[in-house]
Amino acid sequence: DTASLDSSNASSIYARSNATPSRSLNARRLRMAADNDVQFLANRLAKLKLEEYKAHKEIDRTRKKTTEILGNRAHLESSQKMKRDMRDQTDYNKRKEAALIALNKEKRAKAIW
Fold first, then answer.
1. For a surface tag, which of 2, 6, 55, 103 has the fewest beta carbons within 10 Å of its beta carbon?
2. How far apart are alpha carbons 56 and 50 in whole angstroms?
3. How far is residue 42's CA from residue 48's CA, in Å, rounded to a whole number?
4. How far apart are CA 71 and CA 91, in angstroms?
């Protein structure tokens, strides 16, 4: 009788020991899978943050370049306007001088007659 109790006791211990590693193995695998998922997501998040940083850096660079280009354009337009104004003033002065010379010639011609 004791032999059969020991044998049934042993088989139940054996059954539990087989079941427990299986459950613990599944739990370990689930933990490892969860840890792997966490690590994957952490890596993905780090990559996305790096991409975001690079995108912001490129946006800032583009803004600075745009500001520089607009400043250069304004300076160029100002310079061109100043040159046009000086050319117009020079043309005006030349026409005025030519008109005065013509008027003086006319006055001299009338004075002679």
1. 2
2. 10
3. 10
4. 30
108 — alpha (psi -120 to 50), left (phi > 0) or beta?
alpha
Q: Where are the alpha helices (DSSP H) in the chain?
A: 2-112
How far apart CA 64 and CA 73 sit, in angstroms, is 14
Tokens 């660079």 label which residue?
61
- Tokens standing for residue 61: 């660079």
Model confidence pLDDT, tens digit, residues 24-36: 899 999 999 999 9
Instruction: Record the tokens describing residue 16, joined without a space.
Output: 């539990």
The DSSP symbol for 113 reads: -
CA distance 11 to 32: 31
**pLDDT tens digits, 52-79:** 999 999 999 999 999 999 999 999 999 9
Residue 11, burial from CB neighbour count under 10 angstroms (0-12, 13-18, 19+)? exposed
